[in-house]
Specification:
This protein is an alpha/beta fold. The chain has a domain of about 200 residues. The chain is built from 7 helices and 6 strands. It has a 6-stranded mixed sheet with strand order 1-2-3-4-6-5, with helices on both faces. It is elongated. The N and C termini lie far apart (about 155 Å).
């Protein structure tokens, strides 16, 4: 090819899966990703928002996802997202819910709802607590039971995709999107030798060799570079704020810990004071008890001496 083309750039991605001329690619891609989840393979779709080269030339905020409907009325959304951010998961599930609910108009019954499938290819890692690259979310209870089929949401993290050998069509598509920019059309690897992959490479070649298409590609790439710079700046700002908040939290906890230690020391001091007072009170009680005993003993001795004196006086009189 004249120029290296990254299939993850949104205008290329949408031309690959969202143009009428590549409808067969979209059908193959949907079957490859959704696979056994479908009751039967998809044989035809209508692209709701087909790729239009002009919209990318005139509008940097063009809608770049691909939406389609099959003959049974099931809805499909495919989107590429090169940059991740904290709100992306919310956006992913909100757009699925919005597409699912858009099937009903005022007065329509719920039995008109058809399964809706949303597939997101992610250029950066989003789910950081797992090494798995493919994630399928659907409505089930905790025991895995589903009472109805509402469709699903697929997240495919390309950075995590790393297989030595291509075993299925899903892996073939993921490797194409991950490594497509490095492919040489004159010397394609064996895993690219399929009808669909050759058709995909034809689309990449169009962006490489057609002047206007390559201009669109460059414009989108430059726009995404700017967005990436803004995202990095925002991430750094957020990280700085989080660090400051964490430091403030550490200082608050340290102050609370110091106050707790001070309170514990005061409480211990108070316990010691009360213990001393209790010991003094006990000592005083013992002293008073001894004095009282001595007083009783003295009174008893005095009474005994008086009785002896009386006895002696009576003896003399006799």
């Amino acid at each position: 090819m004249k120029h290296a083309i990254d299939p993850k750039i949104d205008c290329v991605f949408k031309a690959l899966l969202g143009s009428e001329s590549n409808q067969a690619l979209l059908i193959h891609f949907l079957n490859a990703i959704l696979g056994e989840e479908l009751k039967a393979p998809i044989v035809g779709v209508k692209i709701i928002n087909p790729y239009n080269e002009r919209e990318f030339l005139s509008d940097k905020l063009s809608i770049v996802d691909v939406k389609a409907r099959d003959a049974a009325g099931c809805l499909y959304q495919v989107e590429i997202q090169l940059l991740t951010h904290p709100d992306l998961l919310g956006r992913i599930f909100y757009t699925w819910a919005d597409l699912y609910s858009s099937q009903l108009q005022n007065g329509d019954q719920y039995d008109l709802l058809k399964p809706t499938y949303s597939i997101w290819l992610l250029g950066e890692n989003l789910l950081r607590d797992t090494a798995e690259y493919a994630h399928n979310f659907c409505m089930r209870d905790v025991n895995g039971w589903s009472c109805f089929n509402a469709g699903s949401v697929w997240l495919l993290e390309l950075n995590k995709f790393d297989v030595a050998q291509i075993d299925n069509e899903q892996q073939r598509w993921l490797k194409f999107f991950k490594d497509g920019e490095q492919l040489d059309t004159e010397l394609l690897p064996s895993w690219m030798e399929t009808t669909e992959m050759r058709q995909a490479m034809t689309t990449l070649r169009t962006f490489s060799e057609k002047e206007q298409a390559y201009y669109v590609y460059q414009a989108r790439q430059n726009y995404l570079r700017v967005q990436r710079g803004i995202q990095i700046e925002m991430d750094e700002l957020r990280t700085g704020q989080e660090r400051a908040q964490a430091e403030n939290e550490r200082e608050r906890l340290a102050k609370e810990a110091a106050l707790q230690r001070e309170a514990a020391a005061l409480a211990e001091s108070e316990r010691e004071r009360l213990a001393k007072e209790a010991a003094l009170a006990e000592s005083e009680r013992e002293r008073l008890a001894k004095e009282s005993a001595l007083q009783r003993e003295a009174a008893a001795l005095a009474e005994l001496a008086q009785l002896k004196a009386q006895f002696a006086g009576n003896a003399q009189k006799e």
